[in-house]
Amino acid sequence: MPAMHEIDYTIHGNDLQYVEVELDPNEAMVAEAGGMMYMEDGIEMETIFGDGSQQSSGFLGSLMGAGKRLLIGESLFMTVFQNRSAQKRKMAFGAPYPGKIVPIHLEEVGGELIAQKDSFLCAAKGVSVGIAFNKKIGAGLFGGEGFIMERLQGDGWAFVHAGGTLMARELTVGETLRIDTGCIVAYTKTVDFDIQYVGKIKSALFGGEGLFFATLRGPGRIWLQSLPLSRLADRLYSASPKAGGSSREQGSLLGGLGSMLGGDND
């Protein structure tokens, strides 16, 4: 595995955050396309297959790494930002929606982190960004967002994003939490992930929480989010006029009568 690039960073903001990193000469960051906020002169951007951690394996290794990313709905390519100048240079990556950016040093969590595929923001060059399949049948059939996760491996800094309010918790041996699959941000490799049926037909059909919960069993550290991207998108879509949601005018009595008599004009 390539040597990790040791980078310095600062997180700015409260609810709409960005992480500013300082790169020494030849240090680099790897990120998903579209995450960059700004970069100073001297930093060069390069698009590569996969995450760049398998470049020593040649083209075939890079192609296999990139192909795995297609399975989780990500692009074949990632972007590397490297400081080619002789001085320190800064750049920043912005959060995609309101929440918190979580810095995690992989060496401190056993060298591996399992993360929700939408939560990864950026990492020091050398961190491997792969996929983690849950091998259990229940999780495979009903896991939804929690079935295929991203596996971050290495001993450097990785940055993930949690929507809404962040919850970080250390689970003791055998301690279990039942969680909405979308609320999982990341967990360490010692945590056991599975899917559990709600248990009651009425709750499953009318409870609004779905048929299944994710279960995380300790020991290990977990990070949860109060506002998953999928939940935010569903609420925004359901509230839009095109989806039958009520606008300010449609919510009034006259607006409702107008819609009934005149219909919606596209």
Low-confidence stretches: 55-59, 137-146, 247-255, 257-261
What is the typical, i.e. mean, pLDDT?
Answer: 78
Number of helices: 5
Helix content: 10-25%
CATH superfamily label: Mitochondrial biogenesis AIM24
Number of domains: 1
Radius of gyration: 21 Å
Q: What fraction of the residues are assigned to beta strands by DSSP?
A: 35-45%
**CATH class (first level) name:** Alpha Beta
What profile does the largest beta sheet have? 6 strands, antiparallel
CATH domain topology? Double-stranded beta-helix
Query: Largest beta sheet: what is the strand line-up?
Result: 5-6-3-10-13-8
Large-scale geometry: globular
Please trace the helix and strand order, writing H or E for each element: EEEEEHEEEEEEHEEEEEEHEEHH
Structural class, please?
A: alpha+beta
CATH second-level architecture: 4-Layer Sandwich
How many DSSP-defined strands?
Answer: 19
